[in-house]
């Protein structure tokens, strides 16, 4: 198989690799370089300024706020989403009534129906979901507050996205809503591959559902949970949080920067304020946060691999 | 991934647990106790599951309902049923609010980039999976490294790269960028897939005198069809739902894609006040993906969950 092999390899790789290098790798390298300059993005001229941008960043109050919010997105969001999803997946796969003569462990009736419905939001664009919930959160005419009025809770009319203390939570709730179903399906697949005899043994030993979950299901599912956590964290630090925050919270990212996340701040500095170099500096910080996050999760989650 | 996904149904069902329940039977007392506990828990789990199902479906139903109402009842009583079905919202959104243009742009961009992603992605993946050459590993990791870094970082210089090439605000420019950003996962997924295909068929074809590229297009691609479908659906949803790339690279009002168009519409409706038309547009944009999801449910779930387990 030697004849023409290299010509073939080069011919097949040139185009994909070229596109990827031009639009992904090259801009990526450039952005690290630009973070040491005073480039505005508006004119082609710039000069090297060393670590000035980084020093400025450390003194930038809004940067610290956005970092704090991004960390919330990376820690709280996966924690809530994954816990909920584990709970639902366990209900769906193991929470069923024990039928006489049936398998020891079974899902509730209609488990596949639940999985189909829960997955729904996952296929919708996060931009469309964000728009929809922006309307629902509207304090005067939105669906949520008028629902509260409808059930007699007239006094309870939060401003939601307009309240600096609430806005970030409202935005995160939307991401939880749209992502839980994905993890329910992911964990269900993992749970279904756990051998039934492990559950049988546990039941014979008199273990309740909670003990079964913590002693059998969770340890055997740990790898899936961990990679799901990293996956969700990367999404929450990047594209997804950009869309929800940019669309749902008006102005500079929530009242008093209360929802600004790092990606949104990069976008604003680059494309609104004409500070391209400073924007790439925040981008580098975001890269470091992302890598550190993945490393920490992998490290904390390290356990002996369980074979079954 | 495949290994946890495929054997999903059999163990749950066929784990013939009958012997054990029989073993449990002789001691009469525990089973009855267990049973009542089980049914309480059953009611509990159903309750919780139903509540979440309602929480998922209600906002979507609310959007559909609202899209048939007029503006005054949208604001006056958000939860009441429409007095009559205002289909004019839909036609107004389609024509006056430019939804038809946004749809067309989205179809062009996604169609072009989906084909490009699959062709280029499978070419690169095939070479990386099947041929030994210096730099193979390096190129592979270069590709899959793209799955984990924040796109926003590259987006600022990318804007100027695209601008310098004269591709800003153009459909084909967006297509090229979409392809580039879809390659990491596509190459990762298809490389693994091509490795699982048997080598003997390709070797036989080669011995019979077929060239490398002929072997690829006539033998390997048809064999890789299931993998191409999975990764194709994954990319379709991702590209159809893309928001960040067009927001940055495509600011020409005539070239907007759906997500962008809707967000712009929402901003401008704040002044014009055609909320019912906006809701109609919103629902309109949801329908194609929901329909695709219901039809290709299995493949969608497989394609998407494969992405999480690198």
Q: How many domains in all of chain A?
A: 1
CATH class of chain A: Mainly Alpha
Q: The biggest beta sheet of chain A, please?
A: none
How many E-type strands of chain A?
0
The ordered H/E elements of chain A are: HHHHHHHHHHHH
Named CATH architecture of chain A: Orthogonal Bundle
Largest sheet of chain B: none
Q: Which CATH C-level class of chain B is it? A: Mainly Alpha
Mean pLDDT across the residues of chain B is 81
Oligomer: heterodimer
The helix content of chain B is over 70%
What fraction, in percent, of the residue positions of chain A are helical?
55-70%
Q: What are the defining features of this structure?
A:
heterodimer; A: 308 residues; mainly alpha; MetI-like fold; 12 helices; B: 310 residues; 0% strand; disordered N terminus; MetI-like (chain B); cell membrane (chain B)
Give the structure's gist in a few sentences:
The complex is a heterodimer of chains A (308) and B (310). Chain A is mainly alpha-helical and 308 residues long. Chain A has 12 helices and no strands.
Written account of the structure:
The complex is a heterodimer of chains A (308) and B (310). Chain A is mainly alpha-helical. Chain A has a single domain (61-300), classed as MetI-like (MetI-like fold, Orthogonal Bundle), CATH 1.10.3720.10. Chain A is built from 12 helices and no strands. In chain B, helix 6 crosses helix 16, helix 7 (99-130) packs antiparallel against helix 15 (258-272) and helix 11 (200-207) packs antiparallel against helix 12. In chain B, 78% of the residues lie in helices and 0% in strands. The longest helix of chain B is centred in the first third of the chain and has 38 residues, at 29-66. Chain B has helices at 2-5, 9-14, 18-24, 29-66, 71-76, 87-95, 99-130, 136-145, 151-164, 171-196, 200-207, 212-223, 225-240, 244-249, 258-272, 275-295, 297-308. Chain B has 310 residues and is mainly α. The interface between A and B is large, with 121 and 118 residues. Chain B: This is Carbohydrate ABC transporter permease. Chain B: Its main location: membrane. Chain B: It is found in: Cell membrane. Chain B: The chain crosses the membrane at residues 43-65, 102-128, 140-162, 174-194, 215-237, 275-296.
């Amino acid at each position: 198989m030697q004849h023409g092999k290299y010509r073939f390899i080069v011919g097949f790789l040139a185009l994909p690799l070229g596109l990827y290098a031009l639009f992904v790798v090259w801009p990526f390298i450039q952005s690290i370089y630009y973070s040491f300059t005073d480039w505005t993005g508006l004119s082609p001229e710039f000069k090297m300024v060393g670590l000035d941008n980084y020093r400025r960043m450390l003194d930038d109050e809004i940067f610290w706020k956005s970092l704090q919010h991004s960390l919330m997105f990376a820690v709280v969001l996966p924690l809530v989403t994954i816990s909920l999803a584990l709970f639902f997946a366990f209900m769906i796969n193991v929470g069923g009534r024990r039928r006489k003569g049936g398998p020891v462990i079974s899902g509730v009736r209609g488990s596949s129906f639940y999985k189909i419905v829960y997955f729904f939001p996952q296929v919708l664009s996060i931009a469309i979901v964000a728009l929809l919930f922006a309307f629902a959160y509207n304090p005067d005419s939105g669906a949520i507050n008028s629902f509260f009025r409808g059930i007699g809770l007239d006094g309870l009319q939060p401003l939601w996205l307009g309240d600096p203390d609430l806005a970030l939570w409202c935005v995160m709730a939307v991401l939880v809503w749209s992502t839980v179903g994905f993890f329910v399906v992911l964990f269900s697949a993992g749970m279904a591959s756990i051998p039934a005899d492990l559950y049988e043994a546990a039941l014979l030993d008199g273990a309740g559902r909670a003990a079964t979950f913590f002693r059998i299901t969770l340890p055997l599912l740990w790898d899936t949970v961990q990679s799901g956590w990293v996956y969700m964290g990367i999404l929450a630090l990047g594209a997804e949080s950009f869309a929800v925050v940019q669309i749902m919270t008006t102005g500079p990212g929530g009242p008093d920067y209360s929802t600004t996340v790092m990606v949104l701040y990069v976008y604003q500095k680059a494309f609104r304020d004409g500070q391209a170099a400073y924007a790439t500096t925040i981008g580098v910080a975001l890269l470091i946060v992302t890598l550190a996050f993945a490393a920490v999760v992998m490290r904390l989650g390290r356990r002996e691999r369980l074979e079954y | 991934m495949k290994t946890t996904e495929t054997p999903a149904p059999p163990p749950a069902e066929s784990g013939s647990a009958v012997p054990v329940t029989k073993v449990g039977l002789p001691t009469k007392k525990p089973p009855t106790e267990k049973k009542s506990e089980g049914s309480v828990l059953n009611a509990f789990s159903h309750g919780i599951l139903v509540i979440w199902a309602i929480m998922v479906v209600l906002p979507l139903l609310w959007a559909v309902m609202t899209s048939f109402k007029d503006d005054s009842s949208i604001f006056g009583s958000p939860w009441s049923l429409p007095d009559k079905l205002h289909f004019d919202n839909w036609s107004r959104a389609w024509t006056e609010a430019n939804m038809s243009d946004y749809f067309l742009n989205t179809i062009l961009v996604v169609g072009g980039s989906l084909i490009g992603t699959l062709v280029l992605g499978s070419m690169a993946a095939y070479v990386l999976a099947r041929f030994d050459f210096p730099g193979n590993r390096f190129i592979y990791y270069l590709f899959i490294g793209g799955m984990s870094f924040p796109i926003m970082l590259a987006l600022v210089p990318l804007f100027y790269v695209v601008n310098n090439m004269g591709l800003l605000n153009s459909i084909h420019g967006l297509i090229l960028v979409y392809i580039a950003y879809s390659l990491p996962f596509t190459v990762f997924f298809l490389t693994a897939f091509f490795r699982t295909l048997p080598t003997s068929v390709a070797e036989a074809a080669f011995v019979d005198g077929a060239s490398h590229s002929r072997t690829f297009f006539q033998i390997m691609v048809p064999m890789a069809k299931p993998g191409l479908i999975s990764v194709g659906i994954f990319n379709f949803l991702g590209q159809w739902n893309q928001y960040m790339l067009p927001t940055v690279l495509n600011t020409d009002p005539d070239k907007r894609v759906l997500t962008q168009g809707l967000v712009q519409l929402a901003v401008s409706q704040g002044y014009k006040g055609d909320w019912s038309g906006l809701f109609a547009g919103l629902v309109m944009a949801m329908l194609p993906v929901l329909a695709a999801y219901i039809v290709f449910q299995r493949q969608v779930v497989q394609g998407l969950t494969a992405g999480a387990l690198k």
